[in-house]
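Worked Example 4.2. Consider the chain below.
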Amino acid sequence: MGNLADETRWLDATAHAELIATREATSTELVEAAIERIERFDSAINAVIMRWFDRARAQAGAFDELPMQSDQRTTAFAGVPFLLKDLGIHAAGMPLTSGTRAARDSQPLSKHDSTMTIRFREAGLITLGRTNSPELGSLPVTEPAAYGATRNPWNTDHTPGGSSGGAAAAVAAGMVPVAHASDGGGSIRIPASCSGLVGLKPTQGRTSMGPERDESGLSTQLCVSRSVRDTARMLDAVNGPGVGDTVIAPLPRRPYVEELGSDPVRLRIGMLDTHPTGGALHPDCVDAVRAAAALLEGLGHDVSLGHPRVLEDSEFPRRFAAMWATQMAVGIQGLSAAVGRELTADDIEPVNWAQGEYATRLSATEYAMALAAVSQYRRQMHQWWADGWDLLLTPTVAAPPLRIGALYDADDGISADNPMAPSIRAGQFVAFTPPFNATGQPAISLPLHWNDAGLPIGVQLVAAYGREDVLIAVASQLETAAPWSGRRPPL
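Applying the procedure from the previous section yields the following structure tokens:
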């Protein structure tokens, strides 16, 4: 090979692993190539906020010393470079700041590995550092005051989405082939849509949130990737319950990689091509979802207008906000413990402080009523699939990638003094993703459309609870029919 950093830039993680398995490259060489790309490109997009390069070099070197017959060399992503998100996942002895200024300044070190950290390592991945996230993961753009905005490799005036925006920007720019991502309201799917990537939110309970968090909550974890096969292999590598998990998804019928290239039976697919709660849906997003519908019909599936009517429930955002705000308050308290002092409004961005303060005014009864309402919402949503539908097709987000700063500075009649203004604006942009965090269903965003300005527009497919196999099979069909691997940002 010539310049390995250039020659491997657009390869997916599976291809990276194959280079190592066939001895065409070592883990050290691929890690050095990824480091070279980060140092070359990250100044333009600000995706990687912590660089653990010496640690990664040592791990890659230790891997390369293993005998060829070692079991560790046969793992899914043996020796492949990787990045962790700066949110919700611990790496023992390394800092986790959750995009906050207080933790950035104090650099609290994690005392343990999260279950998913262990599983990523057991899959063979070599972690090079952490990626940027909005403060406490609260917004669908990645513009924390602590670290500054992450920019979209397709157009640096625009956001790569959030909260896994740093992860998505790093993969979209070709710095690493795959990166950790998490999703509590769309935070895998939104940046996948904005950055031209594959983003699967697994079924609730498919991946462990241990030992810190509860699987019955809104969030789950996996990755953003360049290909459906990488996502399938990652899910195979890390799925399954951890010790003490509270929700455990049903076992898959076979490895997810066996769904790749399979020929699924004719599926009944509903399509939603309007904003579910009456907001504005950008014409580019309408074009994207209708083109995807035509593609699915061409593959032999039955696609028709139809969606769960509960998606039109205008009260759902309020119920979701009560749960989200409570999680924010818990997050602020946890951060206080990590940095060793009580945090104040000077430490936390106004939108997040306001949510935390709102949560402190909720009574236990009000929170319990919100949980009950979400439970009913969940059952009503699941009924649509039980009634005979296989998939729901929607836009992933309601507009193309927003301009940097759009959630903070828009001429839309919302008072600039309202600390919740960014969150209110975000609600319209992300109306298609949070419902499926509340219902626990798996959903995937696929990069099937680019608008005339060259910005990616993702489409979302949602399956019944536990049916990632259907999503991966259909996503594989779509990737073959309308491949996106040749599309590369101008960065």
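The mean pLDDT is 96. The radius of gyration is 21 Å. Compare this with Example 4.1 before moving on.
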